[in-house]
């Protein structure tokens, strides 16, 4: 089963969340969380930190990630691991491909016209709000 990760990056004060604006499909023109593909023989947390640094310039020294939840898609033979963290200092992010943007938490993250993931982003944000970051 192919592994992927999805990383929820909160700013230092936890009032904004980092998104990328998709330039192409899937989800062209919509906001999505950063993340990517797990390499063979790579641990999930290691893959999350690697993808985060590649896509944003944020390093392990800038943030501590916690594993919050997984989505298993048997019909697509893949698993998506969701990681959450808040920056421990102000960091200037750098774009790899998709432009990055900090969004305040007052958005309707269930809006399928604006956000990728068929409502999963809204669900993940609510899980963090109600139950915390994970382990």
What is this structure's SSE topology?
Blueprint: E1 2-10, E2 16-21, E3 31-32, E4 34-37, H1 44-56, E5 66-73, E6 78-86, E7 100-104, H2 120-131
Parallel strand pairs: 1-6
Antiparallel strand pairs: 1-4, 2-3, 2-7, 5-6
Number of strands: 7
CATH class call: Alpha Beta
The helix-and-strand class reads alpha+beta
- Could you list the spans in which at least 5 consecutive residues all have pLDDT below 50? none
Radius of gyration: 14 Å
Q: What is the 3D form?
A: globular
Average pLDDT works out at: 96
Largest sheet: 4 strands, mixed
Overview in brief:
This protein has 135 residues and is of the alpha+beta class.
Written overview of the protein:
This protein has 135 residues and is α+β, with helices and mostly antiparallel strands. It starts with a strand and ends with a helix. The chain has one domain (2-131): Nucleoside Triphosphate Pyrophosphohydrolase (Alpha-Beta Complex), CATH 3.90.79.10. The model has no long low-confidence stretch (mean pLDDT 96). It has a 4-stranded mixed β-sheet with strand order 4-1-6-5, with helices on both faces. It is globular and about 35 Å long. The chain contains 2 helices and 7 strands. Helices cover 19% and strands 32% of the residues. The longest helix has 13 residues, at 44-56. Strand 5 and strand 6 (78-86) form a beta hairpin.
